[in-house]
Amino acid sequence: MIDKESVLKFFSACSRPLSFKETISQMGLDRKEARRLRNILQGLVRSGELIMTRQGRYGPPEEMSLVKGYFEAHRDGYGFVIPEDPGQRDVFVPSKATLGAMEGDRVIV
């Protein structure tokens, strides 16, 4: 039975982001499991554990050079993303690119 952990493990071993159909094919899933996979992927994207690109491909944020962290706003409108991973550097976010993020929001940049 397919579960969240097996999906995360699968994507961490992939060399590139995959579409839904590619994922089904490479995991060898039947129709019932494919429906379950769709629900799992939606949950993983909502939680930030996977990213869905504009092209509809899925992959871990670390493999896409993205940073997960918390937004720190400055009174002049700009802010910084403080990474969850202490080994990564803070990311400057200009005021035009904050997209309404508020102090403490969990973001991916």
Automatic annotation (TrEMBL):
<dbReference type="GO" id="GO:0004527">
    <property type="term" value="F:exonuclease activity"/>
</dbReference>
<feature type="domain" description="Ribonuclease B N-terminal OB">
    <location>
        <begin position="69"/>
        <end position="109"/>
    </location>
</feature>
<protein>
    <recommendedName>
        <fullName>Ribonuclease B N-terminal OB domain-containing protein</fullName>
    </recommendedName>
</protein>
<dbReference type="Pfam" id="PF08206">
    <property type="entry name" value="OB_RNB"/>
</dbReference>
<keyword id="KW-0269">Exonuclease</keyword>
<dbReference type="InterPro" id="IPR013223">
    <property type="entry name" value="RNase_B_OB_dom"/>
</dbReference>
<dbReference type="InterPro" id="IPR012340">
    <property type="entry name" value="NA-bd_OB-fold"/>
</dbReference>
<keyword id="KW-0378">Hydrolase</keyword>
<keyword id="KW-0540">Nuclease</keyword>
